[in-house]
Each structure stands twice: as structure tokens, then as C-alpha cells.
Write a structure and sequence with these properties.
heterodimer, A: mainly alpha, two-stranded antiparallel ribbon, flat, B: mainly alpha, 12 helices, 72% helix
Chain lengths: 335, 298
């Protein structure tokens, strides 16, 4: 990297600059500081202004009733409230889809990271990790389109039918797999979400696994451990906190993901235990109904937004604290 | 960490190193088996990418033609036409968003690397990381409550929403790039008598320029595919909109969303074509950014 600086002009040597230049340094410093603060200001404004706008609906419905009632009936009023606003169906939908996503993506991400760091030939490693990370570059709406018109009807519908016929007879547990089956359902949204969060969990996990001290690994091999024993007892064990952090990062993404879920989760305003039911999630419900909403419903949607924000920020703060403790993990900002 | 690998010593001394007992053989077989299953897992992880790219190309290519880039979208029932209003809207809004977010983000990174002392930069850094995880629909809601309610849907509203999404990405990636600039260069510049702002503007930033470009490109790629923010700030439009504000604007992603969720085949075909174009743009930017990073790290 070459850098050219203009050579200092030698004659006449001017060590004193004009009076105006005295202010250049403080001005620049002030610019940089305010730019740095802008992140905090925007974040603060976000939570402040939306909470302010959502307060009327929390007042009208009661905060706990807003969270735990499952009766959502949008009212048509331009001023004041006439509907019922209990967001439990959407909270449930968000939790269930994210849970499905994490339970599929986490084992897969660990396996992929192990493969990339321990098994794959050296020259393939960076190509493989780039390939997985390309999944993060695909826009959410393209996942939605692909899921809706191809993946759900062609792959997931048969998969759901198979699971239904195989598992729904089990007492209690089987209720999760009860019919009727909807092509767009919690399960569909969850599986596509799993694909979407796989790259971020993999990126962080892989980086943490690469940091496991070489000595420990060599010592284990020296004692006669097999590849699998090294992976299980050394690598997974010592990168465990990082894997937890990575999972929470992925969970945060899954909770906040909007378009793909909005297109794939079904879009009803009810909920059911069955994973094959078509419900709605918090973010998805905002996207699905915003454009037809009356002013009072928009206030309620902002209320949903606030709940969603709190949920994702709590998860993200936890994840960042965990990931930060184990050292700087580069390159996930853009994922 | 104590690890017992074998439950007991074999009763007889092995004749050679190749002579292993049944337990060891079992461990070795299991290890082999795990290696194979990891390989299969890798395949499963890559399969969706291949499936998406394949489907988007196969279904999007036929609908892609000259018309696609030169005409606005007709009603979903009708064949032909294109995504002109979306292409214009996306370029327009992403352009404005970059003008807003790139300088601000880079200056924010300058604060973190050059001026930050004590606990405050740690907080800024932490919350920019947290901000990358804020749901895009929430950013849309924020812009809606803060601005759209007074100034109506429009290009600039969408651009502001996108800029908020881009900001933390640019801050964090630029910060990493600025840290790679050797301290010696700053010292040398100061030694020549440059003021601090001159050092930053004429030495540090140019030296980190390739890296800063890649960060900006990744953020642009993210913004180009963004939908949820625009749903709440730009709203969508049936015709090409050139107004800066006050008139609802469209974007590629919004058109894809509408095309995918309506029942008519011609509209769906155009949505696939739109997805192909959008993915082309995003992949091009992402791969180019990766390439530049890889080259400058060497």
C-alpha cells in the first residue's frame, strides 16, 4: 500500500499558520465526535419515539393484556381505540419460528464449522466458508419468493406430511405435529429462517474454533485421540462460550427477520400448538398489515414493534457480551 | 483436562504399532464415520444456495429482456413490461442513503480509532454492533413515527431508513480498516508538522481507502435488497417516481414482494426476473468487496 503525502514546502518555512487554521483541528474533532455519537443518538431516538407513539395502545389495552391476550381485532377508528389488541399470537409465532430455526441451524453450523476447520482440505477452506457466507448476502425478499413459490410446495410440504404421519400419534409431544397442514406455516418459515441464520452462526463458530490453541489439539493427538475425540473433547468444549454467543446472534436475527417470515408464515391472526399451523410473527405481522391499517391499528403495530425491539435488543446485547468476552470476532458486521 | 482414551491396557503386549485392540478400532471407525457425516452436513449447508441460484436463474431468465429495464410494471395479470420504477427507485434511494451514511459512518469510525479515549468509544462500538441486529421493520417503524407522519411517504424517507440500516455496518467495517493503517504513518505525518486533521484526511483515510470502499459496498449490497424498511417509508408505486419527497416511491424489492404474493403468473415471472437482477447486483458487490479485501490484506 503506497501513500503519498505532499512534501512540506521548504521555503519559506511557515511554522505559524493563519489564524483561521487554528479552528480546523477542533472543528474536525468535533465532527468526528458527533458522527460517533450519531449511532447512540439514532438508537436512543428509535426507542424513545416509538415507545412514545405506542403508549396510547398500552394504556388502552394494558401492557400485560397486550402481551398475553390472543385476541387481535383491528379497529377502523381514526381517533381513539375500538379494537382488541392482544399480541400473544404473534409473540408465539416469533418464538416458535425462531426456535425451529435455531434448532436446525445450530447443529448444522457446528458440523459445518468442524468440517471447515478440521476435515476439509486446506485449499478448500476459505472457498467453503465464503460459499456459506454468501447465503447471508441473499436479500430476505428473495428467500421469501423462493420459499413461497418453490421450496415450500416442492420440499417442505412433503416433509410436513411425512412428519405428520410419523409423529402426530405420540401423546403430548405429537400435538406439535398435528394436521391440518398449511403450506405456509410456522414450520416453513422456521426452516427458511434456519437457512438464513446459518451463515452468521457458522461465521462466528468457525472463527472461535480456529482460535483453539494449537498445543491442546496437538497434545490430544499425541495421546492417541482420534479426530472425533479431538473435536468433541477439545474443540467443541473450549469454544463453547463462543458457540453460545453465536447462537444468540443467530437467534436475534431470526427474531427480527421480517420479509421471509411475512411471506412464509401464513399471515393469520390466531395461533395453535401445531408447527404446521399458519400463524404470524411480530415483525411479519407489521409488514403484512401495515399498508391496510387504520390509524389506531398503526399505533398497535408500533406497540408490536416496541415489543419486538426489546426482545431483539436483549438477545443481541447478551450475544455481543458473550462474543466480546472471548475476543474480537471480525467480519460479522456485514452478515 | 484429563481424558481417558482407553478403559484398560490390553492384556498382552502388542506385537507392533499396527496391532490395535477392538476398542481402538471402534474409536477409529467412529471417527471415520463422523468425518463422513460432517461432509454430508457441509453438502446440506451448501445445497440451499445452489437451489436458490438455480431456481432464480431458471425462472428469472425467460422474463428478462430489454423491456424489463425500460418499462414500468403493468397490472400483474398482463404479460410483458418490466421493473423500471423499481430500478429507478432502488438506485435513487440507495444513492441518497449512501450519500448520507457513508461519510457519517466513516467519520464515526475516525472517532473510534483516532479520537476515542476511555469508556465512551467502547459504548459506541458496542451499540453499533447491537444496532446491526435491530430488525429492519423496526427501523421502518421508527422513520414512520419520526418523519413520515409529518412529511408523507417518499424517496427521502426510504433513503433515511436505508441509511440507518447501513450506518452501523459502515462504522464497524471502516473502524477495522482504519486500525490496519500502521501507527508509523500517523507518527511520520505528525513529524512533518501536519495537524491532526491533515494527518487523518491526507494520510490515514487515503491509506485505508480500499478497505473503506469494501465496507461501503457491503452496506450498499445490504441496502439494495432491503424491503421491510421501504414498506413502511417508501410504500411503493405503480409508476416511475422522480420526486425527492412527498410522493410514494417504489423499489425492486417491493415489486418482488408484491409480485410473489399475488396470484397471477405473469407477475410471478417478473418477480423471479427481479430477484435475478437484484441477486446479480448484490452478489457482484459482495464478491467484489471480498476480492478487494483479499488483495489488500496480502
Amino acid at each position: 500500500m503506497t501513500t503519498t503525502t505532499t512534501p512540506p514546502d521548504l521555503d519559506p518555512p511557515r511554522l505559524t499558520a493563519s489564524g483561521r487554521q487554528r479552528f480546523a483541528d477542533p472543528l474536525f474533532r468535533w465532527l468526528a465526535i458527533s458522527a460517533g455519537m450519531s449511532v447512540l443518538v439514532v438508537l436512543g431516538l428509535m426507542i424513545g419515539m416509538t415507545t412514545r407513539d405506542a403508549l396510547p395502545v398500552f394504556d388502552y389495552q394494558g401492557f400485560f393484556s397486550f402481551l398475553f391476550s390472543d385476541e387481535w381485532r383491528a379497529g377502523p377508528s381514526r381517533s381513539g381505540f375500538t379494537g382488541e389488541y392482544g399480541a400473544w399470537s404473534f409473540i408465539y409465532g416469533t418464538i416458535v419460528t425462531s426456535a425451529i430455526a435455531v434448532s436446525i441451524a445450530l447443529p448444522l453450523a457446528i458440523a459445518v464449522s468442524l468440517y471447515i476447520t478440521r476435515v476439509a482440505p486446506k485449499r478448500l477452506r476459505s472457498t467453503l466458508s465464503y460459499t456459506v457466507e454468501m447465503l447471508a448476502a441473499i436479500p430476505s425478499v428473495v428467500y421469501g419468493l423462493w420459499g413461497l413459490l418453490f421450496f415450500a410446495p416442492v420440499f417442505l410440504r412433503p416433509a410436513m406430511e411425512y412428519l405428520e404421519s410419523g409423529l402426530s400419534w405420540i401423546p403430548v409431544f405429537g400435538r406439535l405435529f398435528e394436521g391440518p397442514i398449511y403450506t405456509t406455516s410456522y414450520f416453513t418459515a422456521g426452516v427458511v429462517l434456519a437457512i438464513m441464520i446459518l451463515p452468521i452462526i457458522t461465521a462466528v463458530t468457525r472463527e472461535v474454533m480456529a482460535q483453539v490453541p494449537r498445543d491442546q489439539i496437538d497434545a490430544a493427538y499425541g495421546m492417541g485421540a482420534t479426530d472425533w475425540e479431538v473435536m468433541r473433547r477439545i474443540i467443541i468444549r473450549s469454544s463453547f462460550p463462543g458457540i453460545v454467543g453465536a447462537t444468540m446472534l443467530g437467534l436475534g436475527r431470526a427474531l427480527g427477520e421480517t420479509m421471509a417470515v411475512a411471506m412464509l408464515v401464513g399471515g393469520s391472526q390466531r395461533w395453535a400448538m401445531s408447527l404446521f399451523f399458519g400463524g404470524d410473527g411480530l415483525a411479519a405481522h407489521i409488514a403484512n398489515t401495515f399498508q391496510d391499517a387504520s390509524p389506531e391499528t398503526i399505533t398497535a403495530l408500533i406497540g408490536i414493534g416496541v415489543v419486538l425491539f426489546i426482545l431483539t435488543v436483549v438477545v443481541n446485547v447478551g450475544a455481543r457480551l458473550l462474543v466480546w468476552r472471548i475476543g474480537r470476532v471480525a467480519g460479522d458486521a456485514a452478515l | 483436562m484429563t481424558t481417558t482414551l482407553s478403559p484398560s491396557r490390553p492384556a498382552t503386549r502388542p506385537s507392533s504399532l499396527r496391532d490395535i485392540d477392538a476398542y481402538t478400532r471402534r474409536r477409529r471407525r467412529r471417527s471415520q464415520w463422523v468425518r463422513w457425516s460432517l461432509m454430508i452436513a457441509m453438502g446440506i449447508a451448501i445445497a440451499p444456495l445452489a437451489l436458490i441460484i438455480l431456481q432464480v436463474i431458471v425462472r428469472g431468465w425467460p422474463a428478462l429482456g430489454w423491456e424489463f429495464f425500460t418499462q414500468a410494471e403493468p397490472p400483474h395479470r398482463r404479460e410483458g413490461g418490466g421493473y423500471l420504477q423499481g430500478i429507478v427507485g432502488t438506485l435513487y434511494m440507495v444513492g441518497i442513503a449512501s450519500v448520507l451514511a457513508v461519510p457519517l459512518g466513516i467519520m464515526g469510525a475516525v472517532y473510534l480509532t483516532e479520537y476515542g479515549r476511555g469508556w465512551l468509544p467502547k459504548i459506541v462500538r458496542f451499540f453499533s454492533d447491537v444496532m446491526t441486529g435491530v430488525p429492519s421493520v423496526f427501523v421502518g417503524l421508527f422513520v414512520y413515527t419520526a418523519l413520515v407522519q409529518q412529511f408523507r411517504f417518499g424517496t427521502i424517507m426510504g433513503a433515511i431508513g436505508l441509511a440507518i440500516m447501513m450506518l452501523p455496518i459502515i462504522v464497524r467495517s471502516s473502524e477495522e480498516m482504519l486500525r490496519l493503517v500502521p501507527e508509523d504513518q500517523r507518527a511520520a505525518s505528525a513529524g512533518l508538522g501536519a495537524r491532526k486533521w491533515q494527518t487523518i484526511a491526507k494520510v490515514v483515510l487515503p491509506s485505508a481507502a480500499p478497505g473503506l470502499t469494501t465496507g461501503a459496498m457491503l452496506a450498499v449490497a445490504r441496502a439494495a435488497g432491503e424491503t421491510a424498511v421501504l414498506l413502511l417509508t417508501a410504500l411503493g408505486s405503480l409508476t416511475v417516481v422522480t420526486a425527492f419527497s412527498g410522493v410514494a416511491q417504489s423499489s425492486m424489492s417491493l415489486l418482488i414482494y408484491r409480485g410473489a404474493t399475488q396470484p397471477f403468473d405473469p407477475g410471478k415471472e417478473r418477480a423471479w426476473a427481479g430477484a435475478l437482477v437484484l441477486m446479480g447486483i448484490v452478489f457482484l458487490l459482495t464478491i467484489a468487496a471480498r476480492y478487494i479485501t483479499a488483495r489488500s490484506r496480502r
